[in-house]
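Subject: Cell division protein FtsI (Penicillin-binding protein 3)

B.,
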Amino acid sequence: MRKPTPRASSRGRATAGVRGGTARRGVIAPRATARRTYTAGTRKAAAKRSTGGTRSRFSGVRIGLVVLMVIAGLKLVQVQGFEATTLAEAAAKQRSTEITIPAQRGAITDRNGVKLAFSVETRALSVNLKLMRKTWDEYAAKNPAKGRNFETEVAAASKYISEKLDQRITERELLDKFHKDQAFTYLITDVEPSAALDIVKKFPSIAAEPQAKREYPGGSLAANIVGLANWRSDDPTPSKHNVHGLTGLELLRDNELAGTPGRMTADSQNGKDSVVIPGTERDVQPAIPGAGLELTIDADLQYDLQSKLSAYVAESHAKGGSAVIMDAKTGEVYALANDNTFDPNDKDTRTTERMGNPAVSNPFEPGSVNKIITATGAIDAGIATPESVTSVPGSLQVADKTVRDAWAHGTQQFTTTGIFAKSSNIGTLLLAQQLGPERYADLLKKFGLGQKTGIGLPGESAGFVPDRTQWSGTTFGNLPIGQGLSMTVVQMAGLYQTIANDGVRVEPRIIRAKVNPDGTRVMENPAKQVEVVSPQTAKTVRDMMRAVTQKGKGQNSGTAPTAALDGYQVSGKTGTAQQVDPRTKAYSNQLYNITFAGILPADHPRFVVGIRLDAPDTTLPVGHSAGPLFHDIASYLTQRYNLPLSDGPAPVVPLVVG
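Prediction pasted inline below.
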């Protein structure tokens, strides 16, 4: 039986059960719900409510957009107004790099203005490998048909640079540097500026940085004095830093020579390690050049001394040698040489042994040249005169030591002049005993032994003199004959400079003046002076020592007639001192220090010369004496400085009486 259908209205109809379904058995069906019927008024109200909701949502979105725009505007004002300077500085900082401008290092010249060391401007070639690889990878990707990439570019650059620099660096070496596993590298330093400019123009990825190079035009000339300046081994970017001294005066006076580097800021393509963009340099702080040094040495005389010394050392088969030429009045060093030196331009010669300066750093036992102290003391104290006679036996007992002369003889009568001209150990000790250890020790101090001379060179040794409180019975048997104490060749020459300068010891000097960048000269502080003995004593000793070079009859010849120079009076003293054998730690009968110190001319002193030969072959004619070397040095001095001839030849005086 059909269920009755509810009556439908004109607007809709009721639906039995659940919409779209039927009532399940056993389940009470929900109450039928009729579809709502709307009148015209009702539809208008509904539409109004719907429109109001839409408008509300639109207004909310609009307000939100306005708020966002206000916030963005405020942020823009903040960035462009309040933070503009800060952000601009930060951006500039990211793309800028600071470049060091090397300071011009001061030159080192001799007393006549001859340049011994000076600096020239060069370039260091460098490359930002990271940026270069990126640039060429991008280029190759955009232009595959052109066949150019990082590999082709570095191959071309390596070939061009190697050829441009005359194979100073090979293509293979350059390729290895281009393929380093790092962001930045230096390719080569010391490149001539015009060559560097050509390379950079052809290969813009390569940069050329300013660099200073030290030049030594004389090579080994005065190298032990001047020294060496270079980039320090711990400097990772040598072209960005000044050259610094490593040895010699380059090291000792580095602060004055180096100057102050300058700085400038420039933009780069990719931050600090990239290539600088030309034309962006700014904020330049100029470099301040260093001061120069004017030395006391004469380059020509220095060359002559080095040549003669080296030849004599080789001829005598010596282990080495040193020599110095000093102004007799001022103490200025005109030449200072070692036979074994180095060339600052040749890295293969830069060994520790060759770069030292034995003339000031290696003391030795001087032997009989030290007898001048006893001679001075004896004359000054009135113990003896040049003509007074001393009976000299064949041997002398000093404490537990027996002293003999270099030649066997019985008791002989020596003049005081003869004791020193013949170099008698026994006669010297007899006079020293009369002088006494206290006065002798005081003279050692006044003559400057056991003290640094203050010459102004690095590594100077003070030598060695035993303290007076530590002297034993045999000490005073050694010191007067030049054993048991040590001195440098400069100190040894200083003994004779004192006698040449009327008894006044003057501190030796190697630097005359500092030359400021504007050309003004600042003289070194005045040399210290010490009055050791009276002028009359000094003249008497000086005249006495002329007999060392005299050639007389019989026993009246001195120990060094080969040192004599025609037309000039020469005062001097020879020395032969046993060296300590490094194996036995005792005095050797084969190893000797052969020395000579001389004054030229003796009647009007101008120069003092000191020579030391280290263990020459004393069986050779040139090995047992340095007199011939002094003669040759003195001969050049007289010509170089046009020294006036002496007033006359020195008189031949008796040395042994009876």
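Residues 299-344+362-515+523-657 form a domain with the Beta-lactamase fold (CATH 3.40.710.10).

T.
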